[in-house]
Amino acid sequence: MMTRIIGVGNYIPSETITNLFFDKHIFLNKEGVLLKENNASITDKLKKITGIEERRYASSTQVTSDLGLIAAQAAIENAGIDPETLDYIIFAHNFGDVRFGTVQSDTVPSLAARVKHLLGIKNNFCVAYDVLFGCPGWIEGMIQANAFINAGIAKRCLVIGAETLSRVVDIHDRDSMIYADGAGAAILEKSNDDSGIKSHLSASYTLTEKDYLYFGKSYNNERCPDTKYIKMDGRKIYEFALVNVPDAMKKCLDNSGYTIDQLDKIIIHQANEKMDEAIVNRFYQLYNTPLPENIMPMVIHKLGNSSVATIPTLLTMILNGELEQHEIKKNDIVLFASVGAGMNINAFVYKF
């Protein structure tokens, strides 16, 4: 038995934040000392490394569950289903609803429960819960939904990935320029042909890698020391990803029964353009195969890193014909992969 995607949707916030937005920011190092480079040099370096020119922020009236709701509604419409037929709503996020101008995370009730309520679903046996798994959360939700369907526990599942990272960044940390807001969703059900999820893989590296991404205090020592913001050790994450993600992708592809020459697209978490390119290059090196053109679509240059939302957002854009040079056709084989806080890695191979 396999499960297939019957509908997708996304929500790309309307507020475009260019790199010029950070021109007046006061960027400090970990010791609270002003960085020597001017902000123009800092943003130029960011663009060269990550590829990010712009990112999207949610409006001041929106929270993460609002973004997730819009993406869910789009996926339901795309699938042409009655939401009452959903057995599970799985909402991947990491920081809950953080209202504009505040720093407190609100996760009770769950964001999935809020979306179910706003969808007006009366079916009490439609189970709604959240997944916290770092940036790979949406893929993990898809893997869980696939397991529920294959086990006969569910027939149809909605998986949402949404985040408002702009609400949890330290404005004095230059890494804050990487993060963005957004949402994406997909609906899975039992496949009636040979399309669907062919293999999947998940891993959590926690022995020495647990704190590569973490919540820490502001680099501005005058800010409240009890308030925490998203922080990362970029160098360690980069090295970890290059060592571990290509191997995980290879294992997942090998488990699917498909060969490297049958792979049509790689949809990878939009974390850092240079890092993603290095991961995919190393993945093909494992097969002693040259990297094909247009194998890896990227939208990070315009949308930034919206964590769990990047992959379902990108998938929706491709299926809607919004990206030049990229399309997914019937029978195409696509490898999905992500890496993030945990440190977690996951992937799945899908036949369209």
What does this structure look like?
The structure is a single chain. The chain is of the alpha/beta class and 352 residues long. It is built from eight helices and 13 strands. The strands form four sheets. Strands 1-7-6-4-5 form a five-stranded mixed sheet, sandwiched between helices. A four-stranded mixed sheet has the order 8-13-12-11, sandwiched between helices. A two-stranded antiparallel sheet has the order 2-3. Strand 12 (333-340) and strand 13 (344-351) form a beta hairpin. Helix 5 crosses helix 6. The longest helix has 23 residues, at 234-256. It is globular. 49% of the residues are buried.
Jot down its keywords.
352 residues, alpha/beta, four-stranded mixed sheet, 8 helices
